[in-house]
Structure formats: structure tokens, C-alpha cells
Amino acid sequence: MSIAEELSALRDEALDAVVSATDLDSLEAVRIAYLGKKGSLTAVLRGLGSLSAEERPAAGKLSNEVRIALEEALTQKRSRLESEALASRISAQAVDVTLPGRQRMPGKRHVIHQVVDEIVQTFVGLGYEIGEGPEVELDYYNFTALNHPADHPARALQDTFYVRDLSGDRAVVEGESDVLLRTHTSPVQVHTMETKKPPIYVLAPGKVYRRDVADPSHLPQFTQIEGLVVDEGITFGDLKGTLEHFVKRMFGDVSRVRLRPHFFPFTEPSAEVDISCGICGGEGCRSCGGEGWLEILGCGMVDPNVFRHVGIDPERYSGFAFGMGAERIAALKYGIPDLRLFIEGDMRFLRQF
Ligand code: DAH
């Protein structure tokens, strides 16, 4: 093969290789294979020196042309591959503005907790402390010490869930007291008076349980807030003034308060407290059943029998107590017709508070 034939075969082969290179790395490999230090075209160029003086000019010219053609082909192909690579990088990194954003779902306090907090704030502002007691309670605290003796009919109003032991019998503590889920927060009154000496100003929010089927006005588990004051010289007037302050804070200045005589075993006298209907202002409407008033809580002066159970001298001290359902207060405040909405966890309902 003449040197001219060799060079033209080399050129065709090299240009084919440039065409087949699909990326910058394989293109660089082609460049090294032909034009690198050990490349095949470089070898030919180096061999020119051993040619005879007649052959050398034509071969030199031809091999230069091949080198230039190859370099041009490489340069063109490199810039094409580079712009292709750039274009694909741009499209890979592009922000897709049609992609929906990631939604944040910040939580918030449940409306019942908000209402409890508000009530707590009102009474903390009056100097009350927060009291606590267990939800799994002894019969003694839930009933007996609150002046419900064993066969008292008032127990029937608050049936509850009793705890059983492993053999299936009713669990009994210290050989005498059934274990149950507390039906009200009033047992916290007893725990408080067992551990603190008067003056006592305590507010006790917490969960309570009843053997009730859920309906628009009953829940088997709900939230109560208990208040207890024990001090020297406490009167029914103090109770009424305290409740009026609370009602105005909670429901606004236009609300009026009415106390109706009632019976609770652990207070004497006892009353139920109504507020004027926020819709009709006391005229009577559908929302208040034509009454003009809505019941919000029970209260009374602490019965001397309760004081005797905890060793407080009823001759020296007097006190008042009250208890309310947070779900009921929330329902009245926001006009909610069915208490079950508070526990169903429907976000469409809960988000509005
Ligand atoms: N514990 C009563 C109940 O659940 C509510 C109550 C009434 C609490 C009168 C009191 C009170 O402290 O004095 O129905």
C-alpha cells in the first residue's frame, strides 16, 4: 500500500470513528487514538522523515490535510456534543412549575382544649391553682366521700365502667373500694382537701366517663372542669359573683346568669346555673327550647359531710364548688347542635376553631 493509500484509509477510518462517537468521552478516545502521542496518524507523521526526498513533499502535504480534516471534524463534533449535553442538563434540572407544591399541615389545639385553656386562664386570673386526680378512681373518692353513701339513689344517675381483676371479679382496693372510671371531676375536691389545708382555690380540668350511649347531648367520655374554694367566711354570694365573672368572660358582657335550686349530694344548698340564651337574649327561641335560658353547670356550698370526710372543721371553714362540662360550654359558645362532632375527628369541622 502506498503512503497515500494508507493515509486516505486512515482518514476514512478516523472520520467514521468521529461520526460514531456518542459522547465527549468516546470522542476524546478517538482523538487520542489518532492524534495522541501514540496515535496512528501521529505515527505516520513521524515516519515522514524516513521517506525519500521525492516522496516527502506530497506525503507531507497529504498527511497535513488529513490531520486538519480530522481536527476540524473533532472540533465540530465536540461542540455539537457539548451543546447537546448542556441542553439535556438544563432540561433535567429545570423546575417543573406545574408540579403541585408540598402542602404543610400544621396542627392546632382541639377546640375542647382551647375552651378548657380559656376557662383555666379565667380562674388562674382569680388566683386559682390547678388540681389533678386519677381518671381510674376509687368508689370512695367518686361517690362515698362526696356524700353518696352505698345505696344512695344519686349513684344511679352516674353509672360508669368498673375495673375487673384478672379472674373477672370487680377489682377492689384495700378490701373495700371498687375501682372505676370517674364519672365527674368532683373526686379531685376530696384529693385536694386531703392534701392541702385551707385556704383552697383550685380548678381541676380532666376527662370523665359515663355508661352513656353517645347522642347529641351525651358522650361516654367527656371533659369536666371542677372548681373548689374553701376558706373562712365564704358565702353563696361569693359563689354567685365568681360564676357571673366567669360567664361574662366566656360568653360576653350581655350574658345574664340565673341560679335554680337543685340537688347534688356533696353541696348544700345546690343550684344549677343557666345563662341567658345568646340567640334570643332571654326571649325564648328554638335554640333554647323556648326557655330563654341554657344550663351550663352545677354548683353549691360544700356539704359539711364532705368536710368531715377530709377532716376540715365545718364550723370554721365554708366553701363552694362547681362543675361544668367543657363540651357543653363549647357547644353553647359556638352554637354546635351535636356533641358527637367534637370527637369524630372530622377536620372540616375542627379546622374552623
Ligand atoms: N359533679 C357534678 C356532675 O358531674 C357537677 C357538679 C355539681 C360539680 C355541683 C360540683 C357541684 O362541684 O358543686 O354532674
Topology, element by element:
Layout: H1 3-20, H2 24-35, H3 40-47, H4 55-93, H5 111-124, E1 129-130, E2 136-138, H6 139-142, E3 172-173, E4 177-181, H7 187-195, E5 200-209, E6 221-231, H8 236-251, E7 257-264, E8 267-276, E9 293-302, H9 304-309, E10 318-325, H10 326-334, H11 347-350
Parallel strand pairs: 1-5
Antiparallel strand pairs: 2-4, 3-4, 5-6, 6-10, 7-8, 8-9, 9-10
Bound molecules: 3,4-dihydroxyphenylalanine.
3,4-dihydroxyphenylalanine (DAH) binds near residues 184, 186, 270 and 299.
Question: How does this model look, in words?
Answer:
With 353 residues, the protein is α+β, with helices and mostly antiparallel strands. The protein has two domains: 90 residues; 240 residues, Bira Bifunctional Protein, Domain 2 (BirA Bifunctional Protein, domain 2), CATH 3.30.930. Helices cover 39% and strands 20% of the residues. The protein has eleven helices and ten strands. Strands 1-5-6-10-9-8-7 form a seven-stranded mixed β-sheet, with helices on both faces. It has a three-stranded antiparallel β-sheet with strand order 2-4-3. Helix 2 runs antiparallel to helix 4. The longest helix has 39 residues. It is rod-shaped. The chain starts with a helix and ends with a helix. The mean pLDDT is 91. Bound molecules: 3,4-dihydroxyphenylalanine. 3,4-dihydroxyphenylalanine (DAH) binds next to strand 8, strand 9 and strand 10.
